[in-house]
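Notebook, bench 3.
Goal today: get a predicted structure for DNA-directed RNA polymerases I and III subunit RPAC2 from Carlito syrichta so we can plan the truncation constructs. The sequence was checked against the plasmid map this morning, with no discrepancies at the termini. Length recorded as 123 residues. Pasting the sequence as submitted so the record is complete.
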Amino acid sequence: MSGLKTSMTEGERKTALEMVQAAGTDRHCVTFVLHEEDHTLGNSLRYMIMKNPEVEFCGYTTTHPSESKINLRIQTRGALPAVELFQRGLNELMNVCQHVLDTFEASVKDYKDQKASRNESAF
């Protein structure tokens, strides 16, 4: 059972992302292995990547319920490499998440301001 690690020593970093290409394939068809991730990122990222017209196929699977990793496969139409579309999908997803966060924080601030102004006018 060599090569199996159950714990990490201090200072040791686990690889968060791996690229896997089958023998004989080119840079337009790549599987990305994302460690410590699940359906939350997998489905959101798949959706963002599939919105790009250069993507022919994008799908993901979880390897096993007891493992926290997903395999995300991207196949492009040939104009752009899969890595570039993966990066674009991540950036677009981060932008959407930032927009949701900004909107939420602005709404919380508005609510608190309205609540404070109601309390001031009650006196």
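The longest strand covers residues 55-62. The chain has one domain: 17-121.
Flagging this for group meeting.
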